[in-house]
Fold these 2 entries.
Entry 1:
Amino acid sequence: MNMYLHELKSLRKSTIIWVCAMIAIALMYLSLYPAIYRDGAHFKDMLAGYPASIRAILGVTVDSVTSLLGFYAMILAFVVLCGGIQAMNLGMSILSKETRERTADFLLVKPVSRAAVVTAKILAALTMFLITDLIYYAVASAIAFMVRQSSYSGGLFFMINFTLLFIQFIFFAIGAVVSVFFDRLRSVLPVSLGTVFGCYIIGALIAAGKDDWARFISPFRYFDYSYIVQNSRYETPYLITGAVIVVVSIVTCYFVYVRKDIHAVS
Amino acid sequence: MSVIEIKNLTKYYGKARGVIDVSIDVEQGEIFGFIGPNGAGKSTTIRTLLGLIYPTSGSAKIFGKSCTTNPEVRQEVGYLPSEVFYYDGMRVIDLLRYSASFYRKDCTKRINELAEIMDLDLKRRIDDLSFGNKKKVGIVQGLIHGPKLIILDEPTTGLDPLMQQTFFDLIASENKKGATVFLSSHILREVQKMCERVALIKDGRIIKLERMSALQENNFKRIKVEGLSDLDKTIFDMPGVSKLENGGKTASFLYRGDINNVIRKLAQTEVSNLSIDEPDLEEVFMHYYSKDG
């Protein structure tokens, strides 16, 4: 419990910054919604003029873009990108920071097992994602409610927002498992930014082709917002794939970290 | 029962040598010295003992248990790493409280006592502390829970001489209360002052393990003589003299044996300057090295 609280405390600041960034994205775009709704036909024409791949990268579906949920799905793509970076970053740094900041000689000679250290850190990170997403969800709901032009389904709004948490879990797990294979991870940000942006771009390019098999490559494509809005459910195969990635990564993470040599400061 | 039990410990980092076939037993209540030059394998041995790294073969146990399979045994261990780094943005007291929260005892009283002894300001932020003061945080941190085994890795680097004395007094008093001490150092003087037994390590192997008193009996002195006129070469022709460098008025050599013999000899000549020093560690090592090889 002491380690969990200590981690929460140390993650406080960065979490606040990420929440603010995500809220800022939602606020900026959603505030445009009333104007776009009024000018719907022109807006659709303009978007239809873009090449399909650009639309895919921007997360635009022309048909539904003037409905609140359709428009919000486009915004959420950016928020999820943001959340993905936050999660991968945290995943990569949460264990490796002890060796990078040379505090491993403090923490890992305490009378606790390494597995307990990993558990406390993972739980702290997951707590932070929950807090991030809850605050974001509350604020985004309020903004959406204020800018709405007609009624929309709160349930679907929740469902598409919930994907943020899934994707964060996936990237967190990937980040954590990557980090344990390095003895000294000097800088985390370039790797996590590269991976997350890479996945996003790959996802967007694949999305243009709508190839079901290829969608497995990028976690960003595990949740198709137009599918969720139309069917009120997630696509099971992708949900399972996501869960498998998380479980396998976390288990590997424990396995490797517990057996790892913690090298001396040099 | 031995407090520390290291048996045929070998550790390779890939192909690089860590330690080879190290065996050490440290008894309850002992102050044990572990001495060797940088890179000899001192830290590797200690880190294996603490469960930070895994042995390639052999075993390292504390209170009969391995730290990796029984992390609980570390309840009774206090460790001071050679370089201390702590979490950013914490005050000294926050760190000490966090450290204390891992142990079953209530350490509040001891934190204040130790901070008093080590002259440490608990309210300062750790980031703002000098290297020496960070080291003090490390010392206090390693002792707050009254460990039965204290492991010190190069403890005095960064401490001023007064503070070093305070620190050694503190360790001595912990030892009187029953704590076993494992002191690793490359400074012979420190080890000589404190320890009952000592192990010498070089290039990953233990080359000597014996009682301090035995080591001191065949202790070497580095003697330098400056004569008023050119020194007579024959005066150094006596048992116990080695590595003689004689250049006209000055001579320098290692001497092993009864110090009185050499003083009597030297008294026969006119001397303008004389120094008798402890040989540095390298010389002691060279001696054991050549004897074993």
Note: Residues 2-258 of chain A form one domain.
Entry 2:
Amino acid sequence: MYLQTQQAVKAIVLLLFSGFIFMLHHTGEITKFINPQYTAFSQIASVIFLLLFFIQVPRIFISREQAEDHDYCTILGCNHEMGDKRKVSLKTGVVYSIILLPLVTGLLFPYKELGAAEAVKRGICYTPIQKHSSHSEVLETSNKTLDEMVRSPVLILDNFNFLDYVNNIITYPELFNEKPIELEGFILMDDTLSHHPLLGRFLVTHCVADAHVTGLLLSNDDENLRNINGWVKVNGQIKRLETNGIEIPIIQVKEWKQIDQPEAPYIYP
Amino acid sequence: MIRRIEQNLAEITGFIILVSVFYLVVVNERWTVQTILLPESLLAFNTIFLSILIEAIPFVLIGVFIAGLIQVFVTEEHIKKLIPKNRIMAVGMSCMLGALFPACECGIVPIVRKLVYKGVPIFAGVGFLLTGPLINPIVIASTYMAFGQDLRIALIRMGLGLLIALVIAVSISFLFKGNQLKKTATLLEPEQSTKRFPLLLRIRAMLIHSVDEFFDVAKYLIIGAMLAALVQTYVSTNYLIGLGEGMMFSTAIMMGLAYLLSLCSEADAFIGASFRHVFPETSILGFLIYGPMLDLKNTIMMLAVFKLRFVLVLMIIITISVFGVLTFVHPWI
């Protein structure tokens, strides 16, 4: 009976991957990494890892007969660690430490939600996008939210309507002039783009790596607002601001208060 | 008694590992390192790094399963029968196959490696490698959504992508002979028909190959994800955009960005769309077409599989073809 160390390490790694992904789903922390719409994929991955673990376990030990018999090598792969099984080469050590790295950082480090500091490094979009779509069906559905928005006396933005509402406000600023608005987000200052602070939210389409910011500009009458590093709730009125010939909406802030970062900081379109 | 333990040693060890990990999962308590010790940006890096991995792993697993299937069930005779003799036909067929096959740019590398190993000509392998991640229903749907439910960009992306992939595969067919694979230990097994073994054993063999393939691929995936996360955390896209203007320049910048960010082709359209207010459509198409064909993550994975010279030449050809074709069609877009 021989112990194959490498096969044993592989089995442990497979099970740790399965356990790690399972744990993320179990605690709900998976939403800090990927859009909940796609969680089924990684759940399946977790189960597959467990299956591969069970496949791997019998390879940890091989009997004396198996060690000498190379008949099955053609099909099962000939990786008998017979020659220098006591010696673990440097290369193997490096390879396994690379593979273990995400497990170590994933299990030990706290997870951080992206905030204003990361947002500045990514593209921010607050100018209108020209629509050259002639799809009547699409226009109807967007008109439905648009109608709803025009008719409601005050626009209250939440996690579900944030993207649609912000897109509509940016595309048709003239429809919402003087409209009261209420929304939450983090404050972002990017002097290369504008001298106004931006109230933004991260959109996570697939995973956090493709997160990008969308939001609305705030009027900067209140100097304190600029220096906030965190989340705020803002009440105000939509005004129009003309810069470089483009009309962009801006929120005239009436009152604001600092709030804690919400449980679900990302928006999943 | 000792003999019995010896016989069941594997099962006992497996059971012990299973119980201990299960315990970890149930107790659910993470021994989190104190936040004070680590800078914020490192934590952001870690989050992005893990999210790229978690996103990619299901697709890589599909890739290694298919690679295992090919290893055990597909023989060289099958391949010889299926691939057309004519070079152009072979390229066309592989690109079409890739277009029908939903894959991501990292999951497809092990599949192509196994196919080429089994005797698929290298240029056909490249065609499959390029179109697999770029052209498939999921990518069309996400591009359609990202660009304000506008089919135009999605169709141009697919059409031009297919054209460019064909150009690249044909040029590879003139430049390279032989399979261009690195000689690694796992590929040195004597090639024999596995038909003489019972089906159950062959399925087991397929799964074992999948495990080995996963460990082969995982280290490169992890290095690639780490580099991409580094770029995402520490390099500002605004800085890249500020580098210059003009169609040629902005296309080059968007292609560079696509390379460095290493986004999954299913999601990159949304990032591409967010640049529409800064760059012309041709540059955005550069981002959308170049990214799925070549990026930091899959370069590392290709370097592990193919010879260095081949990968370098392929990278140059892809870059020139995408850039050239886009510059050529720019007046019509």
Note: Confidence is low (pLDDT under 50) at residues 81-85, 128-140 of chain A.
